[in-house]
């Protein structure tokens, strides 16, 4: 039977596995470190880890899926991501000079690691979606404020244009619209003739 348990990494992380198979300490540490990885690193590692762990779960008796050559470029890249090595070792892989070997790994432990990894991916997707939504809301608020400012400025320009058409209108010195100082010559705005 399958039950749902909760593991606290940073937030509640739902994990689906059998009651007798809990995550090992190394799996928990590896998942926590993976949870802190940048999006690109996590996505690349996630794709390969799901395939590696999924192959062991799907065909536990197939020896070719239980050994990872550390000289392989993809595996080197995978192991360079923080948390991956801890998750694999916690799932039953043993370090050898040129490989990680899971010949003695318990399929249930591998399944628990895989389920927790998939739950972490779901959690990261949800957080990413929330962040995108918050950013969109923030942009919408900013766009609305900008639009209101433009409309207010447009209304002021239209009011000014209307006022200029009224008989007896005189230009006022900048910043003193209600001032009695009218602009009647170039010297009123500081422009003197006779420059060179």
Total strand segments = 5
What percent of residues are in strands? 5-15%
Lateral strand order in the biggest sheet: 3-5-4
Query: What is the H/E order?
Result: EEHHEHHEEH
By oligomeric state, this entry counts as single chain
Helix content: 40-55%
Round the mean pLDDT to the nearest integer and report it. 82
Distance between the termini: 96 Å
Which stretches of 5+ consecutive residues score pLDDT under 50?
1-20
Structure in words:
The chain is mainly alpha-helical. Helices cover 54% and strands 11% of the residues. The protein contains 5 helices and 5 strands; from the N terminus they run ββααβααββα. The strands form 2 sheets. It has a 3-stranded antiparallel sheet, with no helix packed on it. It has a two-stranded antiparallel ribbon with strand order 1-2. Strand 4 and strand 5 form a beta hairpin. It is rod-shaped. The N terminus is likely disordered.
Describe this protein with a few key phrases.
disordered N terminus, 3-stranded antiparallel beta sheet, rod-shaped, 196 residues, mainly alpha, 54% helix
